[in-house]
Amino acid sequence: MRPQLFVAATVRILMMNAGIAIFLGIAAIGQDADRAAVLAEEQARIEVIRRVTPSVVCLFAKEAGAGGGSGVLIDSDGYGLTNFHVVASMLKDRVGEAGLANGKRVEMQVLGIDPHGDVAMFRLLSGGPFTPAVFGDADSLQVGDSCLALGNPFLLAEDYTPTVTFGIVSGLHRYQWGTGRALSYTDCIQVDTSINPGNSGGPLFDMEGRLVGINGRVSIEERGRVNVGVGYAITINQIRRFIPGLRAGLTTPHGAAGFTVADASRKIVVNQILKDSAAHRAGLRVGDHLTRFGGVPLRSANHFLSQLGTYPAGWLVDMVYEREGQTLRTAFRLDTLPLPETRRRPGSKAPDPFAPNKLTRGANRRAMKRLFELVAKANGGREALKAFGAIHMAGVRRPTDKPQDSGTAIDVTERRADALRQSESAEQMERRIRWTLWRDAADPDAVRGTIIGSDEAGGRAAAVMRREFGEVEEDNETTTQPSVETKSGYRLWLDDADGRLLAMEFADPVTGKLIRVEYADEKRCGPLKLSCRRTVFEDGRAVYDEIFEKVEVSEAAR
Questions:
Q1: Among residues 55, 70, 184, 200, which one is catalytic?
Q2: What global pTM score does this model have?
């Protein structure tokens, strides 16, 4: 071979070998990077599981052979969520036991129940403080998102350490019919994460460790209760609407629309309506085409049922519909869906498992006290609430139906002593109720009234409290009704998270009209958080807005 050809061939071989080496080096680097990414993802998943495990509990009935289920803690005081069907066997005395991930077994009480939506709240009686789950947003989920289910399938967790299963969100906005007005899963999450008997009541977490649902039911293979990769979880977004009532020990009925719909020519048509329903009084009629319900665009009659099933009775919902080419909008409070039939025999002296009892009344008092403590905390504490004695507010009042109106100037000074005794007019009654709330929040022994349900005000979930200026009887109502039974009675809507006053309702002492005041745009004034905007309604009609540009607080005279 000529020297030139030999050199050229040698160079080509060397270059080829160098290329192969570079390729193999790059491939190795890529494999290392892929391996590192997989290991990092695995480690992150392990860390999430480690972080959420303390919030998961195994639940057991004290009665031998009654089985068990799972639950998840939602606050440090030991309140938690599970399925109604998990605690149904405990309703006779409302007691059971819970196994904690640290191996301890403690007593628990069953508080509020939601038979229709298959949800219940329990309270652990010892072992705290506890590590609660952090709430997520089920509306942000997408099909294909990874998720984790923790619980006690087949009662495998003898040491109470939960079993973990991993999968994806397989579907959203599913509707699963219940039986006899119970155990309906509306607008629920479908997952292929393994859900088996014993997982019921346990949490579904997203991959950030946020609680997005409560696992409850599965589609099963016909020959046995075998997981086939189709499980369902109740969304935490739905459950949050019921939490104020559940914490207060209420049996919480779901809302009823008072009308039915059917699919027709790509429209959702009202085909029946009760003339004494709230929807009919709000203007809805047979033949109208529903387009939105509760702010959600509707796809079908089944989708409407799915959305309806996520609301408690008495909840205020807005609705958009079409009639003869016109788009109309209204809002009304949902009627009450009858509770399931209890399985008591006719004439039986056995207690009604859905009725209030000593335990649930105690839960209601604790929930009231919790709200008062939140009110005090938001306003600088009890001593701060005792210290101030007057509020000076200046601003403008405008008719609601004339937003461009310049309005009427208002300049008001409210003094504690005067506000607590004056109630000859609607304005004075509103002041008296506000000041009574602040006064009682400063006194830990002044917890009077009853939580009667949950509702929404200002876009926030609220506990609805019924109070009177005098003493009140301790009983549990199950619905939030837009009425006041006596002239001395009133209702407060308090933010369930921070105790903020969102709204109140009372009877005008002069006209007897139902007055509703809604509050917005808070600002800090000394120790207090005071609303800078109020909207006043008479018998459901908005009358005027008050916008305060100046709000000042002064201390009580010593």
A1: 200
A2: 0.88
